[in-house]
Amino acid sequence: MAFRLVADFRRLLHAASAIAAIGGALLAAAPSRAEAPAQKAEIEKIVHDYLIANPEVIRDAIEELERRQKVAEADTRSRAVDQSSDKLFNSAAQAVVGNPAGDVTLVEFFDYNCGYCKRALEDLAKLVDSDPKLRVVLKDFPVLGPGSTEAAEIATALRLQLKPDKFYAFHRKLLTTRGSIGKAQALAVAKELGADTARLEKDMKSDQTHAALKETAELADSLNLTGTPSWVVGKEVIVGAVGYQQLKTKIDNTRKCGKTVC
């Protein structure tokens, strides 16, 4: 419901912007003496009557405004990917699963308490299992409170101990753990996989761990990410649990023509 209210509010704002733009265009096109109160009122009435008679104009204006905003946002994010490509794809402060020498890289920003990330895990696992040339970068982006931050700290510290396949097992196990995820749950899963929990307790609060999480947070900010899961393929940023097929298509296209849309 909250997401629907936000979407409706944004559409109202877009409608107001569209109406203002129409009115502004008519006023700008009018002779300079139209600034006189009577003539201004007459133009406003013309705009009002026209919109009442043709309300679809508002819909069309909103749709065009939203289209332009999406294009502008995609362009901004694409430039941000270029500017941060080394940290985004090759940082030492990240986990890499799948084929480390793969020909296409998929980056996921996730939170261990994110319900959509939990659902997207099946899509990610299917991609890794079915595509031997896929390289996957996992970036902890804890946005859902202290528990998420603790889990991210444990995961970040754990990468210093476990090999990629073992870390991937930890990642999958923790994302499929029911209930709220925090320090206790993350430590328990790590212990199951043979980690040194005493070392984890120490390393999770280290400067190295904090720097790694700060780097990811700054990357997310530069890409204008507001939630999880969020993905990067090529130069495109994809927000949300969009499903296996959409991700696979973008990966396949990147492999085929170097872009997510060929």
Short characterization:
The chain contains eleven helices and five strands. The chain has 262 residues and is an alpha+beta fold. Strands 1-3-2-4-5 form a five-stranded mixed sheet, sandwiched between helices.
Strand content: 5-15%
Trace the largest sheet across and list its strands. Answer: 1-3-2-4-5
Topology as a string of helices (H) and strands (E):
HHHHEEHEHHHHHEEH
Level of helix content? 55-70%
Mind describing the biggest β-sheet? 5 strands, mixed
Query: Please, what is the average pLDDT?
Result: 86
Number of helices: 11
What assembly state would you assign to the polypeptide chains in this entry?
single chain
The whole-angstrom Rg is 24 Å
The low-confidence parts are: 1-9
Number of strands: 5
Given helix and strand content, the structural type is alpha+beta
Instruction: Estimate the global geometry from the Cα principal axes.
Output: elongated
Q: How many separate domains make up the residues?
A: 2
| The top level CATH class name of the largest domain | Alpha Beta
Through-space gap between termini? 36 Å
Q: What is the second-level CATH architecture of the largest domain?
A: 3-Layer(aba) Sandwich
CATH homologous superfamily of the largest domain - what is it? Glutaredoxin
